[in-house]
Every structure is written in structure tokens, then in C-alpha cells.
Write a structure and sequence with these properties.
Layout lengths: L1 E6 L11 H4 L4 H11 L4 E6 L3 H8 L6 E5 L8 H8 L5 E5 L21 E4 L4 H9 L2
Parallel strand pairs: 1-2, 1-3, 3-4, 4-5
Length: 135
């Protein structure tokens, strides 16, 4: 199975960004662990701070399942939400922190309704749990 992991804005700073919330492991380090654990799958990783680039990547349609962490776009990107609505493949939204224990504006996801499930608050392990859910 080809699985795309797509991260949104500021997630390129994982490992150094607010380590008390996001931890000290970079996504690149964690992605290597995921590739090792799920060697029977083809994992692809893409990160962008730009909404349109994320949508363009989603529309490439070269994957069988999607793990997406839209970052701050979670809370207001109807464009990404609309794009997700048109993807007829398994898709899981992941958040490293528990968004329901954060600021009020972070407690609403406009993208979640167009995914199959949401994992929030499991740290980086949320990505792993999402991959495990794909059959």
C-alpha cells in the first residue's frame, strides 16, 4: 500500500518547535522509524507551509491512503477540507497534541468531517497508529 503522510505549516519545525508540546524528535527522524516498521508499505512524506501546495500534492493521486496533519489549516482551511471531500481513499487526520486541551480556536477542525477518523493527543505515535488502522 502507498501511504502519503502530509504535514502542514510549521510542522517542518518538529523537534525544535515548542518541545513541551511537540517533543524533541524531528519528523524526518520519526519518518525513518515509520519506514523501517512498515517496510511492507511504500511511505511518502510531504510537508508544506503553503495551503495551495498541500492541495496540489493531494491532487497528485499517487497514494492509496492518507495521513494528514493540516497544522493550523485544520481550523480554517475550507479549501483543504473541500479537497479531502473529493478523495475517495482511506484518510486519517492526526494531531500531535490533544487539540481539545489547547486554545479554544484549536478545538475546532473544519477538515475532520472529510476524513475517516481523527487521532489527537498521541504525540508522534499518532502517525503510527493511523498507519496501523489501514488494512
Amino acid at each position: 500500500m502507498k501511504i502519503l503522510i502530509l504535514n502542514g505549516p510549521n510542522l517542518n519545525l518538529l523537534g525544535t518547535r515548542e518541545p513541551e508540546i511537540y517533543g524533541t524528535v524531528s519528523m524526518e527522524e520519526y519518518f525513518e522509524k515509520l519506514k523501517s516498521e512498515f517496510s511492507s508499505h511504500e511511505l511518502k512524506y510531504y510537508q508544506s507551509n503553503i495551503e495551495g501546495e498541500m492541495i496540489n500534492r493531494l491532487q497528485e493521486d499517487d497514494f492509496d491512503a492518507l495521513v494528514i496533519n493540516p497544522g493550523a489549516y485544520t481550523h480554517y482551511s475550507y479549501a483543504i477540507s473541500d479537497c479531502l471531500k473529493n478523495i475517495r481513499k482511506p484518510k486519517i487526520e492526526v494531531h500531535i497534541s490533544n487539540i481539545y486541551k489547547r486554545e479554544e480556536f484549536r478545538q475546532k477542525s473544519v477538515t475532520a468531517a472529510n476524513t475517516d477518523a481523527v487521532l489527537s493527543g498521541f504525540g508522534m505515535d499518532g502517525y503510527r497508529l493511523a498507519i496501523l488502522s489501514f488494512k
